[in-house]
Amino acid sequence: MNIQFRENSEAASPLTVKTAIADCDIHPARATRTELYPYLAKRWQHHLEIYGVHAYQGMMEGPPYPKAQPNASRRDAYPPEGGPQGSSLSFMQKQLLDPNNVQLGVLNPLNTGQGIRNHELSAALCSAINDWQIDKWTSKDKRLKGSIVVGNEDGLSAAAEIRERAGDKNFVQVLLLSRNVEPLGQRRYWPIYQAAEEAGLPVGVHAFGFGGNPITPSGWPSYYIEEMVGHSQCQQSALASLVLEGVFERFPKLKMVMIEAGFGWAPSLAWRLDKVWQRLRSEVPHVKRPPSEYIREQVWWTTQPMEDPERREDLFDVIKWIGWDRLLFATDYPHWDYDEPSRVLPAGVGEDDREAFYLGNAKKLYGIS
Amino acid sequence: MASLIAGGVDCDVHPAVPHLTSLLPYLNDYWRDQVTTRGMVDLISQSYPQNSPITARPDWRPGSGKPGESLADMQRHVLDPFQLSHAICNPLYGVQMVFSEDLQAAFCRALNQWLAKEWLDRDPRLRGSIVIPTQSIEKAVAEIERCATDRRFVQVLMLVMGDTPLGKRALWPIYAAAERLELAIGVHAGSAYHNPPTAVGWGSYHIEDYVGQAQAFQTQLTSLIVEGVFAKYPRLKMVMLESGVSWISPYLWRLHKFWRGVRMETPWVDRAPLEIVRSNIRFSLQPFDAPPNEATLIRLFDHMQSDELVLFSTDYPHWQFDGQDALPAGLTPDLVRKIMIDNSHATYPRLK
């Protein structure tokens, strides 16, 4: 986070800027409201001007839980040439990519065409944002790779978008958000997984999104902090759904990345799934193996925001239970809860684990040599 | 497995209402007539289908009737063999599912009277939880006050998945009454199904609902803490029942981090979430959702940095463990004593 609060922690890690890293969660933004128009048919430009975007929530602009900072982003991340944080490639290079020696940066555009009730508009916006990623970002800086954003509620058009982009080296994954109209294991989303598996692309599930459901099983909470902390509960329920609907069993080559929802919960969820599955497996005969096995083999986690125990070494127990080979370092640039690469891991981590955590796991997962 | 000790408190046992008609003697003429003329059916929640394996251990399942409906069985299965000093009865009858506050209030009152007469009167080891009609805060408080004159009621019972997050201010009169009357608030697994049972919508399966209970507890803890319930009611104790325990520390590490980041949004939260949990929140032991190995258990309890968080439970008649193995391996004798006896007495002043 960009608020200094680790004053009691042990010495910062010995990582220096010379060590190359992967940043698996970067959020590129549009500099202007109409920046996508060149990629949209006239019909949709007209639609946006007249009707705007109707998401599965009531506000025409912005979220119903006001963020802690403008655009949920760092106050020092406004580009000098103007525009919102994250909207300038040159400033991103200067502030993030160059000083941190980012060798691979994975772009996860938010506020795109996802979570929109008009599914045709959703598909058009997603396709536009994919073209925009190439033009504005990945073709101009080879360190950056895009995520194929898909209209999440219409599995067939989403699958078509994936197939159209398959093999395009500008993209390294398919992007979904955690909150959808139904839990992510439901059949309406299966065409997405099938197409991603065929294309050999991991599916990233980033925290956030709008699906119309109350964001707790007891209805709508009051505060932004509840939404933020609650991303991990949404993600757990989404992952449980993926396991219990048999998505991993049906698509055994599918790889999924849990993005920006923490990872500390992963061992507990897997243990709970295993224990309950022992009792209730006759209800879900399509789940053929203990749930933890699917998770261990087919799921990765980005690190930011890292859970922050009082005794930081406690986190190592959790990482060990998950596996050092399953974590992907991420900063979440330019968002306010950015994790600073040089301060994330305390001393005492072996060189191999450290390298895997910062770079190796990501290169392997995303097929970057 | 660690050795049990005598004199323990089981904070989560479930006496079953045999049928809605069992409550008829405790309803007034009007409601008795409503139940019969409208053909109201038994209130069985999807959270615990009667024949589901988690609803009853195979050797605790009766030949006929609902698991947990016989006091003699409960005595034979848990009260005697576990040498309990007390067991706290948490009825899971589906009264929370109805929407009418009048009907719900009548059912809750009947249920509490039934519990006192048919269970608490018949075994001095038993203690009760007050089931409340949360569709009306006023009626809920009235029911708490009515029952509280009977010191055998030691707790107020709410479901983890209800109509609103539990920290919401509208519910605070319930917490004020509980604190004033020395009652803990027990939050039990289960849903009123007034909202989808996960934060991302309706899943397909019973197993999914059950796994999801842990996430529901997590969102409720966030709500209770950030809305300021424990700043307002510092003596209030809340017990998460059938919540699971292995998620507690990583969850708190996350909450703590965000609280430090955005505490300006909830300035009344004047203590760190970790401290609030250590002073005001407790968790029942079962289901113990961690692998059965000692090394992991030792780390999990060490992460909690407190030996006061966990209260002994069997979750009778739910199937969480076999035989007498309610205590996972690796607990030290000191911790066993805290979990089985001391922590419960510190949580429930009315046990004295």
What does this protein structure show overall?
- The complex is a heterodimer of chains A (369) and B (352).
- Chain A has helices at residues 42-50, 89-97, 119-138, 155-165, 190-199, 224-244, 247-250, 266-280, 291-298, 314-322, 351-366, and strands spanning 21-26, 102-107, 144-149, 171-177, 203-206, 256-259, 299-302, 327-328.
- Chain A is built from eleven helices and eight strands.
- Chain A is an alpha/beta fold and 369 residues long.
- In chain A, 36% of the residues lie in helices and 11% in strands.
- Chain A has an eight-stranded parallel β-sheet.
- With 352 residues, chain B is of the alpha/beta class.
- Chain B has eleven helices and eight strands.
- Chain B has helices at 29-37, 71-79, 101-118, 137-148, 172-180, 206-227, 229-232, 248-262, 273-280, 294-304, 333-347; strands spanning 8-13, 84-89, 126-131, 153-161, 184-191, 238-241, 281-284, 310-311.
- Chain B is globular.
- Chain B starts with 7 loop residues before the first strand and ends in a 5-residue tail after the last helix.
- At the A-B interface, helix 6, helix 8 and helix 10 of A face helix 6, helix 8 and helix 10 of B.
> Overall pLDDT of chain B, averaged?
97
Q: Please give the count of helices of chain B.
A: 11
Query: Globular, elongated, flat, extended or rod-shaped: what is the shape of chain A?
Result: globular
> Could you estimate the helical fraction of the residues of chain B in percent?
25-40%
| Beta-strand residue percentage of chain A | 5-15%
What fraction of residues of chain B sit in β-strands? 5-15%
Brief write-up:
The complex is a heterodimer of chains A (369) and B (352). Chain A has helices spanning 42-50, 89-97, 119-138, 155-165, 190-199, 224-244, 247-250, 266-280, 291-298, 314-322, 351-366, and strands at residues 21-26, 102-107, 144-149, 171-177, 203-206, 256-259, 299-302, 327-328. Chain A has 369 residues and is α/β, with parallel strands linked by helices.
